Amino acid sequence: MKAIGYKVPGPIAADAALVDINLPRPVAAGYDILVEVKAVSVNPVDYKVRNSTPPADGDWKVLGWDAAGIVREVGPDVTQFELGDEVYYAGSITRPGTNAEFHLVDARIVGHKPASLSWAEAAALPLTTLTAWEAMFDRLDVAKPVPGAAEAILIIGGAGGVGSIAVQIARQRTDLTVIATASRPETQEWVRGLGAHHVIDHSRPLAPQIAELGIGAPAFVFSTTHTEQHVADIAELIAPQGRFGLIDDPKAFDIMVFKRKAVSIHHELMFTRSIYGTPDMNEQGEILDAMAALVDDGKIRTTLTRRLSPINAANLKTVHALIESGAAKGKIVLEGF
């Protein structure tokens, strides 16, 4: 089968950063299903792994987590899918990735593809949906009010992949006032179109802009990018006993600035359930099915902003470079081999 991989981690400009290769087609067993991949999207985790992680035992390292496709084989322990089902999912970081014609994935973390979306539109959603959903409902517990706080959530990086879906989920699944950040006119317009009640500029101090809104101190802050640049502002603007979640990888920040307000700090990694095989890992499939229902009901739209074809090394290198630049809006998808 066709696939794209590398043997030596390094910068995307290197000739061997991503290479077109051929690999044996895998076989489904246990809880796995074998998916014929129709479309994939690229996330920051792709370039972070490409920059840092060598393949095991000298084999090819295949990246890619988001995918949409068709079930072609079903393991004996699988009960929720049949041959021919259309699915979408974000795979496990501990297994070979989706940048291949056929991909093995544990059925428990797979959802039924939204019927109203194309392959590319569906492939834009899984990883960011799981990240945003888990961050808000499992980590920040936004359904539980913070006494005296404004019933509001600040989403830092509202125009990015996770931010774009987090804004929509917060609007559709909560009664919170949604404040999102974006710094350019086109990204500010994008975030407003997704449903943010307020948009502020993360290139300027955040706390004064929150104060100018006149709504009070937000109960929740969800930071998706450049967290280390905003820590002092977050500590100033968040409500006492508020909850602060983040998904990026700051080298360090001083958590003591949050002690006086008794702010709790929550990390979110949507791969945790599949890495550790947690007893509740099937919740990821349920989240994706819930998202599919929201999409098919017209309440949430895909965050796809650009598509390329085919899925090959040259196109993946183009997308990796763009994602790594930090200038991308929404999600970029590749489709077809």
Automatic annotation (TrEMBL):
Q: Which residues belong to the signal peptide in this entry?
A: none
Q: Sorted alphabetically, which SUPFAM superfamilies does this protein's record hold?
A: GroES-like, NAD(P)-binding Rossmann-fold domains
> Domain Enoyl reductase (ER) spans what residues?
13-334
Entry keyword annotation includes DNA repair: no
**Residues passing through the membrane, by range:** none
Matching entries from InterPro entries are given as: ADH-like_N, ADH_Zn_typ-1, ER, GroES-like_sf, NAD(P)-bd_dom_sf, Zinc-ADH_QOR/CCCR
Provide the GO MF annotations for this entry.
oxidoreductase activity; zinc ion binding
Q: Which UniProt keywords apply?
A: Metal-binding, NADP, Oxidoreductase, Plasmid, Zinc
A Pfam family annotated for this UniProt entry: ADH_N
Q: Which Gene3D superfamilies match?
A: Medium-chain alcohol dehydrogenases, catalytic domain, NAD(P)-binding Rossmann-like Domain
Q: What family does the Swiss-Prot or TrEMBL record give for this protein? A: Belongs to the zinc-containing alcohol dehydrogenase family. Quinone oxidoreductase subfamily.
Q: Which NCBIfam families match?
A: adh_fam_1
What protein am I looking at?
Zinc-type alcohol dehydrogenase-like protein
Source species of the chain: Acinetobacter nosocomialis 28F
Q: What is the lineage of its organism?
A: Bacteria, Pseudomonadati, Pseudomonadota, Gammaproteobacteria, Moraxellales
